Amino acid sequence: MSEPAPERNQSASLRRALAVLAHVRDHAGAGHGLSLTRLAEALGLSKSTVLRLAAPLIEARLLERDRRSGAYRLGSGALHLGQAYLATLDLRTVAAEESHRLMTEVRETVHLVVYDPPDVVYIDKVENETNVRMASRIGSRTPVYRTAVGKAILAWQPEEAVEEIVAAGMPHVTRYTITDAARLRAELGRIRQRGYSVDDRENEPEVRCVAAPIFNHNDAATSAISISGLTSRITATRVRELGPLVAETALRISRKLGSTR
What we know:
This protein has 261 residues and is an alpha+beta fold. Helices cover 47% and strands 18% of the residues.
């Protein structure tokens, strides 16, 4: 019988070494780490195999081993890798595939915004060319309090941020605009419960929007994605169908950005 190919052995060893790294990442408690025994038992490997697999990870500083307890935890190299990954992320690029997929599924305009209080700034827009075009444009700003994207983000901000939005003023632009602080806070509570927000003709008289927050690698809501369309197409009934779809899309983008939600 022929000997296994060296490449195959190396590939198997690499996969097992990555399994060691992933298990430490997921299960090492803050400041405590994982003992060699626990790590070996969890992965179904012998202690000697774990020691062999962990050695190059320690050399690369992806893992550290406490000199006194022998426990394993992530090393500084893992932090540097994470920082390098985050430095390459661009929200528009990360969200592009999901935004186009969502537009194709719902056949409505999809917006991507970032939070810049007291406004949101539109950074991307994916349109269904067969529909009436939305008036929004990339680079434009709209107050947080009267947009679905703004409220989706604001719902996950501290109370101080809500107070700042209220203090900046909440004038009405349609007869449906929320201009009362108590009503806005109640609306933010509902958004946190259901996971998505609705602009029911609050910014434009004939337009409804449904949005959900996007969380970054610190699990902070710093951006949002929305579906927008005329009220004739996005009815109250359809809002309840679109809400979970946009929330699921936002969650996938969040995870690509490093969120643990």
